[in-house]
Amino acid sequence: MLDAQPPELVRRLLAEKVVLEGRADAASRGTRGYVIFEQPVSHAFRLLSQTIRQKEYRPELESIETLESLPDGTIDEHRLKMMFLDIRYRLRSRVDAARRRIQWELAPGFDHDLARVDGSWELYALEGRTLGVFDTVVEVGAGLPSFLQDYVTRKNLPRTLERCRRWVDGDGRSGD
């Protein structure tokens, strides 16, 4: 997977361990991040697939509660505080151990405070370590200020991915 990336991105990733890349297609509002975890891929996958534990490395989460456990994942309710706003949404996560992929999207049939949230982790073995490729799209919707979208994707996400990296590298202990 790394050999398919531009050399400058690979150089930065090997040096910094976390690299965030905006997408060229501004209409998609998508963001991609690359993370090198110092854990083997099976261990990194096991930790990241425990969606209920996100609060351990995402301090903006006020709470996360599993509402439903499904054969291939969960529906979790996320409550977070961003600046002066309280935001609630439910994510349907799908865990595919064979492909080392975790996907999420807004769960259908619920009222959400965000217009769109979807994304994924794809994990690749990297000589005893793990390359994590993180994709996300967040759209805040008409009821929330537009600067919040920029904050969630470009400003907060690099810190979140770095805390996540430290959390996985620390075997599920504090990402701070």
Explained architecture:
- By secondary structure, the chain is of the alpha+beta class.
- The protein has one domain: 2-Layer Sandwich (Alpha-D-Glucose-1,6-Bisphosphate, Chain A, domain 4), CATH 3.30.530.20.
- The chain is built from 3 helices and 8 strands.
- The chain has helices spanning 7-16, 41-48, 147-169, and strands at 18-22, 30-37, 61-70, 73-82, 85-96, 101-106, 116-126, 129-139.
- Strands 1-2-8-7-6-5-4-3 form an 8-stranded antiparallel beta sheet.
- Strand 4 (73-82) and strand 5 (85-96) form a beta hairpin.
- The protein is globular.
- The two termini are 28 Å apart.
Q: Quick one: biggest sheet?
A: 8 strands, antiparallel
Mean pLDDT: 88
CATH class: Alpha Beta
Low-confidence stretches: none
Q: Helix content range of the residues, please?
A: 10-25%
- Rg to the nearest angstrom? 16 Å
**N/C terminus separation:** 28 Å
Enter the CATH topology name.
Alpha-D-Glucose-1,6-Bisphosphate, Chain A, domain 4
**Estimated structural class:** alpha+beta
SSE run: HEEHEEEEEEH
By DSSP, the count of extended strands is 8
Give the name of the CATH architecture.
2-Layer Sandwich
Count of all domains: 1
Name the beta content range.
35-45%
Work out the helix count: 3
**Bulk shape:** globular
What is the CATH superfamily?
START domain
Report strand order across the widest sheet.
1-2-8-7-6-5-4-3
